[in-house]
Amino acid sequence: MIRLLLFLVLISNQTLGQTADQSAIESIKKNGGLVLPSPGGDNRWEVQFQLRGRNLNDAGLKDVAKLKNLIELNLRDTKITSAGLTHLKGLVNLTRLHLERTNVDDTGIVHLKGLTKLRYLNLYNTKITDKALEHLADLKNLEQLYVWQTDVTTVGIENLKKKLPSLTIVKGIDLSKIIPVKKEEPKPENDLRWLPEGGAEKPPEKSITGEFTIIRFVNKRNKAVKLFWIDYGGKPKLYGIIDPGAERRQNTYEDAVWMIADEQEMPLGYFVTGREFARAIIPK
Amino acid sequence: MSHYESFDPKPEAPVDIRGEFKPINTATPGIQFSEHIPLISKHSNKLAIVRSVHHNNGAHSGAVYLNLTGHQPEGQIKAKGRKNWPSITSVISHFHRPLAGIPNAIRMPYSMYDNGRQMAGESAGWLGAKYDPILMRTPAGEPYGGVSRYDDPALNLKLNLDKQRISDRLTLLEQLDHSLGQRLGNSTAYEKLDHYRQMAADMLLGSPVREAYDLEKEDHRIRDMYGDHIGGQSLLLARRLVEAGVPVVQAVCSAGDLAGGGGDNWDTHRNHFPKMKNRLLPVFDRAVSALLTDLEMRGMLDETLVVFLTDFGRTPKINANGGRDHHPGVYSLAFAGGGINGGQVYGASDRNGIEPASGACTPADIHATVFKAMGINHNAELHDQLDRPYRICDGKPLPIA
User: Fewer CB in a 10 Å sphere around the end CB: N or C, chain B?
Assistant: First the structure.
């Protein structure tokens, strides 16, 4: 009898816990949140809003706060603000929290002070400053902190590192220091020979592949021309139209055959590429 | 990709083997890379390099299949064969399902071809069409040099149709389906079509994937960081797709066609050193280091597993054309991110880079390592379309996590 009673109590407790969670989960899902079981035991949850729940606002966080055993929470790109973070205070089991790309500022970070199990906190592209980092000094389990694209300074980072020496703080790079790849456009070294359609010298029937090269086509005609590559099987493949007087830069390989045709696709002549970067002048 | 000119330089080897490039120090004491990946070498603390992978398949088609599926090709394999083993991308997406409207897996920017023949190993094989990765063209970046012969159908999300028009058309389609469906019953081909159409519609109408595809929305300085090349922009798009909830993305850092050593790709049978130095490694170096920087500063690296695969290494002896030929005897791969301890080298090749000297492992072991890092039991069974069970992997995870 006792055994049975105990059994019943167990069942009802679990049922109650599940019911509380289930109603919270329903509300989270209505807001576009994704609820996943988190490994390591029953009723441990991971909640993600960053994919379909970006319209989540501070009010919606109330439902999230009901999942007491929430382990991971992703609020990236949502509409939450610092005021909403007050709802997270009770989520003491959180180990990973994504707040990046939200309007959260220093005043919101105060509410995270008691989340001592936090190991991962992402605050990149938020409005935080060094002040926010001061609020994190008691999070002894914090291993990773992300502050790229914020007003956090190296001074603030050094101060926090003194209190949490094993914490990795990722400040990221300064985007203004990125230097685009400088493309050195090779100068054409010679002009390819023009082989007119019906002329004495015939072009090869098809392209053969070789080393990479670049050809600059120059249309000296007073009409547009169509540019065809003669493929490895001998079939013409349209690559584009070159307007009168226009130029076209074309990646190709050596031993490729390029056909120039008029707008009605009647062949006018051919070029055969070599290994060097070259010009291909389409005559008047 | 040549192990000598990337992750496993051999300065002690004779000159006709070690080649023209010198080793450089990385950010990790005791680990050296080849000199023309200076940017990646600064990220060595994030990388686990495996220098002892080997297999016995010296043809691109077989080696690509082996590295992408983790299984030896049996008999004649065809690119779209439903008897093929599924690509690792398909298997992962089976265990990590995306939200509705997000593809299981995406691959880009080209299918891989070997001298005119599309290679097997990139599709879902016996897992069924539902798990085929979607081929996506990268919307920006300078094309790979030369002409690509192939133009297989790829998803293009750059359509300028407005949502209302798409919705209207879909409603019309649904009405047609209703009558058509009644007549055709549930034929497999029809279901397959329906699956793709639903997914395409979801994506066009407002999936995060569509937004991710628009590289114009990315900070132009970030785009510069990756490099204005399809290789770089592919990895940037890969990051955006992962952010948008795509479970697995495959990016091929080469032109679509392996044109027999003359093409602008890693099959460097001729002029190996100038090609590697001037055209191939700079793109790889810039794109990969940008990806690692980007993932790290967004806090994504420990949630994202990055794996570098290749078909095989290149021969020790430099041939008469200044090239290196196919060498599956030993080669190097790299891991970074989720569940991997960086700053380490697993295994070693011998003094001349000919075969493994320690920690010999196979593509199947690499796959087991990936599965373990992704929280997937590498001994799990999956069933084909006829419900026959297959154990997904024959390898053992490497102790690099």
Answer: C
